[in-house]
Every structure is written in structure tokens, then in C-alpha cells.
Amino acid sequence: MKSPIKYLLLLVLLGSIFGCNNPQPTALVEDEDPIEIEVITKNPSEPTTFGVDSTGLSENPVRFTNVITVAGIKQTFKGISLKTSFAQAAFFDKTKPVFGLSGKLIGYSTLTPGTIFFNNEEAKLRPFSVRYRVNKDTLLGLRYILHKRAGFGDPFDFDFNSKINFRYVPDISSAVSFDIATPPEIFLNYRLSGAKANKNLNLLLEWNAGFIKNFEILLSIIDEQRNIVFPLYKIKTVDDGKFKMPKKLLEELSARFDKIAFTLTRKFEKQQSNGTKELFVVSQSINSISVDIP
């Protein structure tokens, strides 16, 4: 079980987010699972620079030199899941930083040093934009993309619990090829009881346990009027098939919002060297679901 100091810190941060001057230290240790919660957005009126994009990915390009990403993404609504297959390769030029209007470093210009294939399908060059404020995007350059949603798009399918072959053919050196392992698929559902008017809400997430070590839950709020998702918390817990929402946290959110979203991610990561370039390889199985709070 996590130390009481971490839970107290979380409650103080809850107070700063929701405008409570004197947050009361109600213990979250009622939850049976040991959890670690990271605050992503402290002010929902001004979302974080790097949160959730249309691919379900949230990696900050400032962190990496060269990134290879494959993902199988499902959005579940009333028991029906819409599947997206996504693959990308992005090569960054660390000598060409890109800054936002405030002078904050938000990334680096990209390079296109050759041809990229995923499962023998050639990836397309497409613009790589980073959103760092609401309605403000910055173009970093081009990246290699394969993207298929609900059966439409590029000829690429993400197979769960399998392998995807990556091949890089540089303009001036020999080709590099390796397989990328993919995590098992997530089948997510939830059980909600009670009502916020009665202050007796209970929320339980349920999914097929996979016990993948690198597993997290992203908790977001949904602003339907502006069609924006605000990521609030990143929750580290065990991939054991159940997560009971801490009552205090659920109470705080339901007091202000009518809809919240959960994104569960199983992730494999590795560093891959091709002799001249270091590649950071990320493979993800993602399932998101929205919950209407009565």
C-alpha cells in the first residue's frame, strides 16, 4: 500500500485543481489496489501541452531522438468498439529546436532520411503537428504514418499479442529490419451505481487481466461543448482486470462534470540500435471508454 504522504499530496492537488482553498485529507486508501497517481492537468480551462491526440498516444517529442510507434486503439461505446490501427516513425533533428509562443521548447524539426515499411506496407509522409494550447498547433515537419480507422484508410492492421515487422531503408546506408512485439488486446467495461445527487456513486472498471508490467489508466474529463478531452490523471496500477475508482476522487469529478473517460494502455518499450541511429520503439494496446455520470 502506498504511503499516506502520497495520498495527502494527491488530495492537496485535488484542492488546487477544483478551487478548494482548504482541502480536507479524506483518505484514498479505501481502494484495495495499490495505485500511483500523477497529475497531468492542474487547470482544466487550460489543458496540458501533451495529452491525448487522435491516436491515443501521449508521448512528448521533446524526449526522444527517433521514435517508432505502433498501436491498436479501441474506443468503446455501449459495448461496441471502434478499432484504429496506427503506425508511425519520426526522426528528430536535435540541432533544430521548435519553440512555442511563450518560448517553451515543444519539440524538434523532423527528418525524412529514407523509406519506412510496416509489415511490408510503405508508410506515407504526412505532417507532424503538435498541439500545445487549445486551438494552437505547431508543425514540426513530416513523419511516416500508416493509419486505418474502422476499416478505412491505409492497408495496415495492428494484430494484438503478435508481431509487426518494421523495415527502414535509409537513403545512404543499408536497410534495417526487426520485429516489434504487440501487447494483448484489452476488453474494457464498467459498472456504475448510485447518483451524484445522493453522493453514493460507485464506479468499477473491469477488463481482461493481462498482468503486463507497463500498464496505466488515463483519467480524463470531456468538454462536449468545445469537443475537447482534458487528461487529468495518469494512474499506475496492476493489470489485474479491476480498478475501483476512489470515492473521494469520483465525488470531486462528478460535482463538476457529467462525463469522464478512461483510457487503458498496455505498453511494450525498447531501445533499438541500427548502428547509426538509436530508435525508441513503443508498442501499445489501448482501449478507451466514456462514462456518463447520472
Short key terms for the protein model shown above:
8% helix; 294 residues; mainly beta; 52% strand; 2 helices
| Total count of strands | 18
Mean pLDDT: 80
- Alpha-carbon distance between the two ends: 31 Å
The portion of residues assigned to helices is: under 10%
Radius of gyration: 20 Å
Q: Categorize the overall geometry.
A: globular
The major β-sheet equals:
11 strands, mixed
Give the percentage of residues in beta strands. over 45%
Query: Helical segment tally?
Result: 2
Structural class: mainly beta
What is the H-and-E element order? Answer: HEEEEEEEEEEEEEEEEHEE
Low-confidence stretches: 1-32, 47-57
Overall description:
The protein is 8% helix and 52% strand. By secondary structure, the protein is mainly β. It has a domain at 85-181. It is globular, with a radius of gyration of 20 Å. Mean pLDDT is 80; it is low at 1-32 and 47-57.
Helix and strand arrangement:
Blueprint: H1 4-18, E1 36-39, E2 66-77, E3 80-99, E4 105-111, E5 114-118, E6 121-122, E7 124-133, E8 136-149, E9 152-153, E10 163-170, E11 176-181, E12 188-193, E13 202-207, E14 215-223, E15 228-236, E16 242-244, H2 247-254, E17 259-273, E18 278-292
Parallel strand pairs: 2-18
Antiparallel strand pairs: 1-15, 2-3, 3-4, 3-8, 5-6, 5-10, 7-8, 8-9, 10-11, 12-13, 13-16, 14-15, 14-17, 17-18
What does this entry show, briefly?
With 294 residues, the chain is mainly beta.
